[in-house]
Amino acid sequence: MTTAEFTALVQQYQGLVYTVCNQMVRDPSVAEDLAQDTFLSAWRSIDRCPEGYEKQWLARIAANKARDHLKSAWNRKVDSPGDDILSLSGAPPDEQPEELTLQKDGENYLTELILALREPYLTPAKLYFLGEHTVDETARICGRPPKTVSAQLFRAKKMLQQQIQERRVQDGAV
Amino acid sequence: MELFDEKGCLTDEGLHALIAGELDELGRLEAAEHLSYCDRCMDRYMNMLTPEVIEQPAHSLATPVARTLWVQLMQSTLGRSAIAAVAAMLALTFWANGLFNLPQTLKNRQPGKPQTTQTQQANPLHDAWEACSDFWTGNMNFDFFHSNGGK
Predict the structure, then answer these.
(1) Backbone angles phi, psi at A75, to 5 degrees
(2) How many residue pairs from chains A and B have C-beta atoms closer than 8 A?
(3) CB < 8 Å to B33, chain A
(4) pTM of the entire predicted model
(5) Contact, B117 vs B147, CB < 8 A?
(6) ∠ at Cα A165 (A164, A170), nearest 5°?
(7) ipTM > 0.85 for the complex
(8) Are residues A109 and A166 in the same domain?
(9) Fewest CB atoms less than 10 Å from the CB: which of A20, A31, A110, A149?
(10) What is the pLDDT of residues B51-87, one digit of tens each?
(11) Do A3 and B19 touch (CB under 8 A)?
(12) CA B117, CA B105: separation in Å to the nearest integer?
């Protein structure tokens, strides 16, 4: 594809790409930056674009860009080291979900909490925490990318940790 | 509002909420994460993005994208040109310093006038090398045969 043809593609789909980005990040200036970034990434891998599927392909790249932006923003907000790290490094040892499973009382409670998680966290959390599958196995069974599953498990742990802390506060333990 | 169904896919309600801007940050992250790998939901989402819903950026993206591509292309071309220029400079420097010159014995040699030194006389391999060089340059000389007793 020549640069002139690619420029025509940009003109044709800039509205769509911008809309996808803006609907996800809800910030017009960030959405414009992400849309530009989408087209630059698209240009770099233009030979991988399936013929006739430019729209879906560009929208997928835009969704990836928006996801990465939101993920880093969310990670900064919760002050976490990153989605790849699954341990709750900031929490005291007895508040780690894994540690809680070792306690007789905590085990049932944690199972309840895991089973009460909503999608998209319930399926990977059941497989990983209760089924004791690895992240890769969980990803394969769920049909999701391993990095996505890692991110979802990380957030599931955060949710569980928060619920455990809330319960401790209610019980007057803290 | 349920954003995901029991299969882990986005609900129609969830997609409409995404389009209407009704999702919080975590909901939008979850939706983006799902749309980045689920073809089925991406197709459903694309079908919902009708021309009435499509927004246009405040500034056309074609110009800044084309400009960035041009800059990247120039950087790449100039980078290659710079490498080629440095290589040419090095080659010229080596050439000026005589690094690419033929050995002096070959350079100064005249047909029928062998200029062999004591060391070279004791080295038939060197003489053979010189004869071969002369052969390729058209100055056949069999002196080294004589110096080695015609063997």
Answers:
(1) -65, -40
(2) 127
(3) 67, 71, 120, 148, 151-152
(4) 0.67
(5) no
(6) 95
(7) no
(8) yes
(9) A110
(10) 999 999 988 888 888 888 888 888 888 888 888 889 8
(11) no
(12) 10
